[in-house]
Amino acid sequence: MNVKKIISILSIVVITGLIIYGFILIRQIFSENTKFAEKEMFVHIPTDSNYEDVKKIIAPFVTNLDRFEMVANKMSYPENVKAGRFLLTKGMNSYELVKAMRSNVPVKLAFNNQERLENFAGRVGSQIEADSVSLLTSFKDSIFMKENGFTEENVLVMFIPNTYEFYWNTSADKFRDKMIKEYRNFWNKERVAKAEQQGLTPVDATILASIVHKESVKKDERPRIAGVYLNRLRVGMPLQADPTVIFALKLKANDFDQVIKRVFYNDLTMASPYNTYMNIGLPPGPIAMPDITALEAVINPEKNDFIYFCASVDRFGYHEFAATLKEHNVNAKKYSDWINAQGVKR
Q1: Burial annotation 146-179 (CB, 10 A radius, 16+ → b, else e)
Q2: Ramachandran angles phi, psi of 293, nearest 5°
Q3: What per-residue confidence (pLDDT) applies to 279?
Q4: What are the two backbone dihedrals, phi and then psi, of residue 88, each rounded to the nearest 5 degrees?
Q5: Which of 238-242, 264-268, 274-278 is least confident?
Q6: What is the DSSP string of 236-296?
Q7: Residue 14: its pLDDT value, please?
Q8: Is the pLDDT score of 23 beyond 80?
Q9: Cα(35)–Cα(70) distance, integer angstroms
Q10: Helices 132-139 & 172-186 angle (0-180, nearest 10)
Q11: Where is this site: Important for catalytic activity (predicted)?
């Protein structure tokens, strides 16, 4: 056999080997490599994780970890691990998996109607990497509160209910700093000026808005209720807001899961800074997280002469308003008779 023929045969063997290797390589890269039933799922890679940590996290969700590793090494992923939240789709191949692990997917974080800072921290902590303990510590940081004019009782006013976008691996301090920025954006010069026209600071306005929010679920009625409470503040009359008494009862019992549908006369005399029957002015902090419609109602209240209101028995969810105590007593008796007939005990 001459040299040319040998070279030719060797060339064919090499080329065939390269083709086979290429085919194997392509199969390794582009064949399906997932084993979860859902159409898609998220994996979370904690801050400071390394490649070995990542492999442990994703191992239950890939069919062949060696195949994933081979592709990851070729794509320099082990040296470029990212923390965050990553979307995996059923049927992904190893190349797609590695690519997905480089694309941190933000969390759409929504919150509203939280009654206490502790509840709020728990809700947020269930959606991002920072846990409720680190969030509470950050929110209550004395330097931060002093710099921004908050106290432990009122720092909840900082959080404006909405839907926000965060990366899952956001730290507690970064979350807090984003929220104070959003608070300042909301309380722009125009809104601050409107609050001042009502004799309120942004903190005061939010505390009052929390009462308005709890007093009525009817958004179109909130400016009228805000007007009534502002009238009471102007004449030095206690706010006499049942929702503040309910908050005080929950706080005393340390039970914010209970549902209180009715306030009794003996409840109105309980000693608490949140009891607006016993104390003149605003409570020391919000009794809930007011939504934007309640905040807007307080700084854009209806101008009226009403001093009193009570729940309506004719228009469910709404209230009956009165300018005099005599008118109010008629409305109040009508409601009291109705609720007694319903058998509501608490």
Answers
A1: eeeebeeebbbbbbbbeebebbbbbebbebbeeb
A2: -65, -35
A3: 96
A4: -110, 140
A5: 264-268
A6: T-----HHHHHHHHHHHHT-SS-------GGGGG---TT-TTTSSS--SS-SS---HHHHH
A7: 56
A8: no
A9: 18
A10: 50
A11: 215
pLDDT tens across 115-126, in order?
A: 999 999 999 999
What does the pLDDT look like over 81-117, one tens digit per residue? 999 999 999 999 999 999 999 999 999 999 888 899 9
- Comparing 188 with 332, the larger pLDDT belongs to 188
Sorted by where each begins, the domain ranges of the chain are 27-100, 108-186, 189-342
The encoded tokens of residue 299 equal 């700084």
Neighbours of 280 (CB within 10 A): 11
Q: What kind of fold does domain 27-100 have according to CATH?
A: Dna Ligase; domain 1 (3.30.1490)
How far is residue 58 CA from its own chain's centroid? 28
Cβ atoms of 40 and 88 closer than 8 Å: yes
- Residue 150, both tokens: 């908050």
Residue with more model confidence, 340 or 343: 340
Which residues lie closer than 8 Å to 205 by C-beta, 6 or more apart? 195, 198, 295, 298, 299
Burial 104-141 (b: 16+ CB within 10 A, else e): eeebebebbebbbbebbbbbbbebbbbebebbbebbbe
Q: Quote the CA–CA distance of 81 and 70 in Å, as a whole number.
A: 15
Return d(Cα 155, Cα 124) in angstroms, integer: 15
CA distance 113 to 346: 21
Q: What is the pLDDT of residue 26?
A: 60
Reported as a single tens digit per residue, the pLDDT across 195-212 is 999 999 999 999 999 999
Which residues on adjacent β-strands are paired with residue 63?
none
Measure the CA–CA gap between 291 and 210, rounded to whole angstroms. 8
Q: Please name the amino acid found at residue 90.
A: K
CB 227 within 8 A of CB 321: no
pLDDT at residue 238 above 90?
yes
Over residues 22-41, mean pLDDT? 77
